[in-house]
Amino acid sequence: MSPGAVAAGGAVLPGIASLALERAGLGDIRDKVLAGERLTRVDGRALYANPDLVAIGALANVVRERRHGDAAYYIVNQHINYTNVCVAGCKFCAFYRTAKQKDAYVLTPADVETRMRQHLDDPVREIHMVGGVNPALPFDYYLDVIRAMKRVRPEVHVKAFTMVEIAAMAENFELPPATILSRLKEAGLGSLPGGGAEILTDHAHQVLFKGKIDHRAWIEVAKTAHRLGLKSNATMLYGHVETIEDRLDHMILLREAQDETDGFMAFIPLSFHPENTRLAHLSKPSAIEDLRQVAIGRLMLDNFPHIKAYWIMMTPRVAQAALHFGADDLDGTVVTEEIFHRAGAVSPQKVAERRLVDLIEEAGRVPVERDTLYNAVAPGRETALGVDGIAAPPPAGPAPRPASLGA
Ligand code: V47
Predict the structure, then answer these.
(1) Which residue ranges have their beta carbon within 6 Å of ligand 1?
(2) What is the pTM of this model?
(3) Considering only CA atoms, which residue is closest to atom 14 of ligand 1?
(4) Beta strands 382-383 and 386-387: pairing type?
(5) CA of 195 to the centre of ligand 1 (A)
(6) Tens digits of residue pLDDT in 249-259
(7) What are the percentages of helix, strand and coil residues in the chain, rounded to 5?
(8) Domains, the chain, with CATH or none
């Protein structure tokens, strides 16, 4: 350990960062984090108010390294959006259509099967599937889509349907959420993604998404899923009309729910993309704001195992940097993203596994291919990357740049 560095469970806070935190008036917060103590709302406020992003990032990095060392996780996955028809009318969304619009669509189970068959050569471990709140679909539709997926790839993990979709099914089919979840699980559902949380406060709900469930219902469905053995993620959509207090409410609510169920895997901060939405007059959060949110998420959510820097939304460049500001996961190869691209995202719609590995290695982290539940992929898989999922040594000469990743 270099002089002045402070150790915390094997992870090291460089002396210079420790000093910077002291000078920024964050010495107490630093000491709490190093001692493994929980931060309060007041601490969270102080972190948002402080301009020293590098010092805050260094502190978040200690927590990240304490949990994961240098590992940075990724997954080979495929995103499918089964319908863009939605009755919720959220102001931040550029993806949804009303049933009557020309480009409204619903994929049949056979369409979903076809999409998956197009990628049978890729070692896809997870299907991430979400869609709009579309009351025209019968319950059997959802079960049939899952069954179709399992027919194509019996081993694939189906991570599907947000808490919002589950709550809508419960309402439409007049069944308790627990029954909906159990039947989906029987059909092959493996876990739930973290979408639809937006900002879990009455203020944001009223202004932005009053057509769908509020924070009480979102948390209740999440806890129900966890109790049934279905893990989930939790997102937070920021950079629109929310206040810092809203963000703190959101994270504290998630932290309390996690204390009860321990069912959340990753916290995923989602940076608002305004293009083609009813909030198109707003500007996108900056890279600084994105990194600050990643870092504060890591510091506040002490009981969340993972912080995901979703490269599609954050751009590969910022996601790479986020691996030093508290994030330990980049999500996956994604094929084919629609929600953010409709709202102006400029990242590519998919990325090869090799590129994700390059991104992680270039950031000085160790790529770990994972499954949905964050188990490192079992040895024995022979891939383009080498044997056992371990990246093959680079060819002699200058390392190839991840050129096709764009901005
Ligand atoms: O719930 C919608 C957000 C979410 C916009 O669990 C927008 O592993 C920014 O939840 N600008 C869907 N965000 C995506 C999502 C997700 C993504 C990756 C991984 C996981 C996971 C979950 O996208 C929505 C909403 O919060 N969203 N529109 C927009 N214009």
Answers:
(1) 92-94, 193-196, 198, 233, 235, 237, 268, 270, 272-273, 277, 310, 331, 339-340, 343
(2) 0.92
(3) 195
(4) antiparallel
(5) 5
(6) 999 999 999 99
(7) 40, 15, 45
(8) 15-68 (no CATH), 71-384 (3.20.20.70)
